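Comment thread on ticket #2218

A.B. wrote:
> Attaching the input chain for the structure job we discussed in standup.
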Amino acid sequence: MSLSGKTLFITGASRGIGLAIALRAARDGANIAIAAKTAEPHKHLPGTIYSAAREIEAAGGQALPLIVDVRDEANVFEAVEKTVAAFGGIDICVNNASAIQLTGTLATDMKRYDLMHQINTRGTFLTSKACIPHLKRASNPHVLMLSPPLDMSPRWFAPHVAYTMAKFGMSMCVLGMAAEFKDDGIAFNALWPRTGIATAAIQFALGGEDGMRQCRTPEIMADAAHAVFEKPARTFSGNFLIDDSFLYAEGVRDFDKYRVDPTRPLMPDFFVPADDPPPPGAGLGV
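C.D. wrote:
> Ran it. Output below, let me know if you need it in another format.
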């Protein structure tokens, strides 16, 4: 199934995983609403909504760059309406925008706590809510959260409870909305990487340049997301997917192509359940 003519509303699509998902859809000829905050170049982070639009159009898609703060209700609803006016509807909503801070309780400033919950959990809820009336009219509507499986192990909470709560809030939207909108035929799924993904979050919040070499590229998430969007929405909903396991089930066998540096072992990501081993040929070793 091609995404040609489909319209995607993607938060945080100016760089990283969001942009990779947009570019993969653009190769099919999809329409992409780039809902992100970065309109001016950042001193550290690459990409703006306008540079992303140029890349999307060069890849074969149509782009609508929108300055969107997912914390702002009016801003989100306005962006959704602009998308519908430009492209005639919305077929796919991707909740990718996220904030991270890996600190314990006493080291977490409440301003940062609020930011993570406003962007991750509340932003996902709000963006989904704004898109759902339009998704109800789509032929194969999907909502995808870039969020982890709901694994209630203390190991994921103890080191950074505020961040974990915010990310799991996104996944709880999947759990609830998949059931709530089942009769409307809207699919709600979560997708999460088994390993670190080479994005600004790794470079500046976790591992630096050396950490980037122990990652996979954003293209593994983009390919997995594309495969999700090809699924029939009425029968493929409420799933919590790990990128390589899902792609393996879809027939992918070459995972080396996603490695930033094939000579380095891969960095495992947070939140991957212990009972979800990597598929054959996609382990964390060299």
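A.B. wrote:
> Thanks. Noting for the ticket: Residues 110-135 form the longest helix (26 residues).
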